[in-house]
UniProtKB/TrEMBL annotation:
Signal peptide annotation: 1-25
Species, as recorded: Paradevosia shaoguanensis
One Gene Ontology cellular component annotation held by this UniProt entry: outer membrane-bounded periplasmic space
GO molecular function: thiamine binding; thiamine pyrophosphate binding
Source taxon at top rank: Bacteria
Record keywords: Signal
Protein's recorded name: ABC transporter substrate-binding protein
Record carries keyword Aminoacyl-tRNA synthetase: no
Length: 369
């Protein structure tokens, strides 16, 4: 099985299949660019340069559209922080107000319901799978990945290959999440995945069983209440970090062998997660925000994410049209790792998120910072 085929199979699990969508006028990119240049700036938030290849993606946008400064707010923020930044800056047209957000899937519908985002359909709208976007254009999937373990092989003698192994005595003071599960979509999904590995059949079960599992990891002395990052793994503070595969792979490459590290997709549960883009309803630079979206959903922008190990939401469309370079496919993990990926629905994620964010302190009792 080729990786290309595996991606098609995994996308079908969540029914990410493009369907007929209403046609609309092609965006005049030149006019949009001129309007964006008039605004002079784009403010983004929560985009670490080693997340999904964003460093190169931002550089690509600036090179393609000179005259627009990219103001980068709080690269280490979580999805909930992004939403709060919009709320806190409704009347602020200054440096602290984000124009655009990149958040976990459940945050898209809730932000729409709360009137925090505005609709915009990019030129490539029709090639975004119907089940990965809001029909009215308020939010749209951008990329997806699966939950994985990044392991410092210099410090961990035997890398864990399953969630179940993380409670073992071999991993004392070694296991960390790449975020605070009370705010970070990545960390919330990690707990969800652990619940699936422990036999969950519903989202509520996944949340409760995942919390119980991490409570066990904590009680065994294996959990480290530090937000796991590339630096903390390299330094040995968090020798095992649970993160999206694209983050783990990028961090591994960044080490250049020092330390030695490996990325493992756990055998007992493979959870896939879609992130979404949206424009703030109060964006100080709305034209720059729209131009940013046009870039992200262009072939160039989508392949930029793929270079950062993220599966862009238009992957199937690009692959079917022969636009994915073979070297990019070859750099991705084996297809078999993705074959049994599970894509929770928005409702499932919302149900699990409510339980995990509320009960983490009482069940696990680890203040992740």
């Amino acid at each position: 099985m080729t990786f290309q085929k595996a991606c098609v199979v995994s996308v079908s699990v969540v029914a990410l299949i493009a369907s007929a969508a209403p046609s609309f006028a092609q965006t005049d990119l030149n006019a949009l660019y001129e309007a964006a240049k008039g605004e002079g700036q784009l403010t983004v938030i929560a985009l670490p340069h080693d997340w999904c290849g964003y460093g190169a993606v931002i550089d690509g946008f600036k090179a393609k559209y000179p005259g627009i400064t990219v103001n980068e707010l709080n690269p280490d923020a979580g999805s909930a922080d992004e939403i709060e930044a919009i709320k806190a800056n409704k009347d602020n047209k200054g440096e602290g107000a984000p124009d655009v957000i990149d958040v976990g899937l459940p945050f898209g519908p809730s932000a729409k319901a709360d009137g925090l985002i505005q609709p915009y359909k990019v030129s490539t709208w029709d090639s975004i799978p119907a089940d990965a976007k809001d029909a009215d254009g308020y939010w749209y999937g951008d990329y997806y990945g699966v939950m994985a373990f990044l392991v410092n092989s210099d410090l961990v003698a035997k890398a864990p290959t399953s969630w179940a192994e993380l409670t073992g005595a071999d991993y004392a003071n070694q296991v960390a999440l790449a975020g605070d599960p009370r705010a970070s979509a990545q960390a919330i999904q990690s707990v969800y995945a652990a619940g699936l590995a422990n036999g969950a059949k519903t989202a509520e079960d996944a949340a409760n069983l995942g919390l119980k599992f991490f409570g066990d990891v904590q009680s065994k002395g294996n959990f480290v209440p530090v937000i796991g990052k590339a630096a903390s793994l390299a330094q040995g503070t968090t020798p095992i970090v649970i993160a999206w595969d694209y983050n783990a792979l990028a961090w591994r490459d960044g080490f250049a062998g020092n330390p030695k590290a490996e990325v493992i997709v756990p055998s007992d549960a493979v959870l896939a997660g879609v992130y979404v883009q949206a424009i703030s309803a109060f964006a100080p630079h709305p034209n720059a925000a729209k131009l940013w979206m046009e870039y992200l959903y262009s072939d160039e922008g989508q392949l930029g994410w793929l270079k950062g190990y993220c599966h862009p939401i238009r992957f199937n469309d690009l692959a079917q049209n022969g636009k994915v370079p073979q070297e990019l496919l070859a750099a991705l993990p084996p297809a078999e790792a993705y074959a049994k990926a599970v894509f929770p629905t928005v409702d499932d994620q919302n149900a699990a998120k409510a339980i995990i964010t509320k009960d983490w302190d009482s069940v696990v009792g680890a203040n992740v910072q």
